[in-house]
Fold this protein.
Amino acid sequence: MSDRRPLIAGNWKMFKTPAEAADTAKSLVGLVRDATHTDIMIAPPFTALVSVAETLAGSPVDLGAQNLYWEKEGAFTGEISAAMLRAACCTYVIIGHSERRQYFGESDETVNRRVRCAVENNLKPVLCIGETEAEREAGKTLSVLDKQLKNGLQDLFSDDLGNLVVAYEPVWAIGTGKTATTEQAQEAHKFIRSKLEEITGSALSEIVRILYGGSVKPANISELMDMPDIDGALVGGASLEAESFSKIVLFQ
Ligand code: 13P
């Protein structure tokens, strides 16, 4: 582990009503009350942001959203703006998750517009990148990461990126029970940091946190966190229950 402050983040995807989400958040707050070694974030569905924000008030757990749209307001049915997320007390926003790329036509270009919008509105972007199984088997992992990172950060400069978080999520490890080996994850994270250095300069690349995502559980968090370029985790399934997520948060 590095000097960077870890971030353990939960992506609740399309799970939980506002009441269920508030319940889980309440249990989580009780379980992680004394966690001072890491930043913690949960990203419930949009409809649960307000109920969860009320539950998290005064706790060490931050609130995140799972997406945003880059326009300020207007006739964009089904979309949600940065100002709306800010008003709902979000400090983070997940952008470019592979499920959005796979099922909802998200492209590097739209990902970039969302990242720029998050930065302009003082939301911390969690930019997700990662290769599919076919891309890994074809030996294209690093070139895919390079392209997604560069395109996702186009027209952004080091001054904009102090709050950037990158999440490396190999698509083949999401929800499958297959975790990248710690060596595979470290190799990808180290590569991402070297590319960040090319894009932003060395000082910033040493600050940006790079999270690993894909079947993270209480049983594998410690070995992942032992890697020098892994600064935290973006957790799906195992973040849905306060008990298992708190064990990941309290990984030490
Ligand atoms: P799982 O932890 O369920 O594999 O999901 C990872 C993920 O997609 C987090 O964004």
